[in-house]
Amino acid sequence: MAVWLATGIAQTPAPQTPAASASPVRQANDYSDDKTWLCRPGRQDACAVDLTTTVIAADGTMTRETWAADPNAPIDCFYVYPTVSAELTPTSDMTPGVAERAVIRSQFARFASACRPYAPMYRQVTLAGLRRLMAGGDPAPALTRGVGYDDIRDAWIYYLQHDNQGRGVVLIGHSQGSFVLMELLRSEIDGKPAQARLVSAILAGATLPVPKGHDLGGVFQHIPLCRSTTQTGCVIPFASFRSTSPPPADTIFGHVENPGLEAGCVNPAAPAGGSGELHSYFPATMRTSTGGMQQWLKTDQKIETPWVSVPGLLTAKCATNENATYLEITVHADPSSPRALDIPGDMGAAMANWGLHQIDVALTQGNLIDIIKSQARGWK
């Protein structure tokens, strides 16, 4: 089975050995304590950030897009963040740091325009722990048996008992977070009463095996892939690679060993199939794989917002080569445009097998929010 997780902000692959993941006695977190949540509705917390965006058109015209959370959103979102902890221990503690707040800002806070935000802290496998796990083989078993998964299960149960109140909920994860959510879906939701609450699950930066040519089966027996923006009770898995750098033979994502299975892929820009334009949100200050800073304009104009969007520059479609099934990202560069010809997000030539993993969510965030809003209108 392919590795299903990776790093989020810091771009260093890492897994955990059985010894590293072992914990003497697990003491459960008290999720009734507000400090165990990075985001909850109605608070000034990690989700209360400035998401103002400069939209840069192909002709260089810049417009400002404001943003606000919807306090009356009809559904909820429950988010599990990727591997971000730089603590030297195999698993992280429960004290939120810069990395946890940064990944909330980049991956989750914007979803609060479509749903009430819930983001629990959890004792995740750290970057150091993940390195050791990957050196020992497939880290998946250690993650599903680890304290991090147990924490998320406890947070989910607390949320259902005390916060949900019969509302629909979207599960959102990336990398390690998606892996943990796959196990939560499999063991606590698929075919169980909680499935009635499931609007959808976004499993970004992960490999979800499904039978070849089918939308249902493999890991889940009652939760299919989403194939329209109004379908509910379904999942949206994908892992991104450039069209000019498809998954190699040693790809981390999109490959399934079982010949009867393939990686499920749902294109957030066109769930029914085919190609679609991406509605991306990137940090205005973002490093390239060579260590420089991304220049979004060829001119000296200043970008004064923390975020940038580049309509018309990117499209996506699900594709398959001899190594993997993946979300293929195409950049439509226009040399005559004053706008940048390319985007950052690669993890370097030595890590081509990770694709555009670090920007899976940034690439698709606007599309995913539109899908959630559409699903919310039809969910009962």
Describe the structure in your own words.
The chain is globular and about 60 Å long. Strand 4, helix 2 and strand 5 form a beta-alpha-beta unit. The chain has one domain. It starts with 17 loop residues before the first helix and ends with a helix. It has seven helices and 16 strands. The chain has a six-stranded mixed sheet with strand order 1-5-4-6-7-9, with helices on both faces. Strands 3-2-14-13 form a four-stranded mixed sheet, with no helix packed on it. With 380 residues, the protein is of the alpha/beta class. The N terminus is likely disordered.
Count up the helices.
7
Residue stretches low in confidence (pLDDT < 50, at least 5 long) are: 1-24
Average per-residue pLDDT, rounded, comes to 91
Q: Helix/strand-derived class?
A: alpha/beta
- The number of strands is 16
Strands side by side in the biggest sheet: 1-5-4-6-7-9
- Gap between N and C termini: 36 Å
How much of the sequence is in beta strands?
15-25%
Helix content: 10-25%
> Number of folding domains?
1
Indicate the radius of gyration in whole angstroms.
19 Å
Given the C-alpha coordinates, what overall shape results? globular
| H/E element order | HEEEEHEHHHEHEEEEEEEEEEH
Biggest beta sheet attributes: 6 strands, mixed
